[in-house]
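Hi, here's the filled form for the chain we discussed.

Project: internal
Contact: R.S.
Residues: 233
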Amino acid sequence: MNQIFKVFCTLTLFIFSVNAQQSIRTLEVKGVGTYKAMPDIGVLTIEATIVNPKFADAVKGLNAKTEQLIAQLQTVGFKKDAIKTTDFSVTKNLVWENNKNVDKGYIARQNIMIDFPNTKEKIGAIITSFMNSENDVRFTFNFILSAEKERQVNDALLTLAIGDAQSRAELIAATTKQTLGAIHRITYGMQNAVPMYKSAMMMNRGVANDESLGFDVKEMTLTDEVTIVWELK
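And the returned structure, exactly as it came back:
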């Protein structure tokens, strides 16, 4: 008998809880924050390539070319230990001739990378160093936010998104003659992916001119979202 009574009480409480939850009126609003930020870090990636009939000579030639590039970068203020290799490979150099692959030796390839404070002057100094270099290489500039600035931007985005949700909720409530109560639920996930801007160049000695020295980087436009559910009184 006692067991039956306990089950009855449990069911009664459950039904009461469900009915109470169903009686809560809510307003769900999505807030969006938009923020523009100038990337403060430039990332320089250089691809050096050597083609040689012999494997050993291809590797030696690539090492020599890379050392020349590192020495070149040091002339514009980069430290040697800050220059990192991101990729190194030696592959067969197969060329399609007369309807068949012809072995032309080996291609040795190495990518090195370094980051720097993003300024037009620094970019110009880097480009000038390639203009005066004997090396024919391909280099790429990427532009990103530093970790510190990314945190600041994310905080600003979230603040803007919350403010947008709040103002939208207040407008809807006032227009429909409702009163906002306590916050019932907040849903948030990092919607924003920080973009990376890229500018690629292949520089041959003597090709560039003074007009190409340095350039201004476009601002990043970033967004974030938060969804807030208010109880209505």
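Let me know if anything looks off before we file it.
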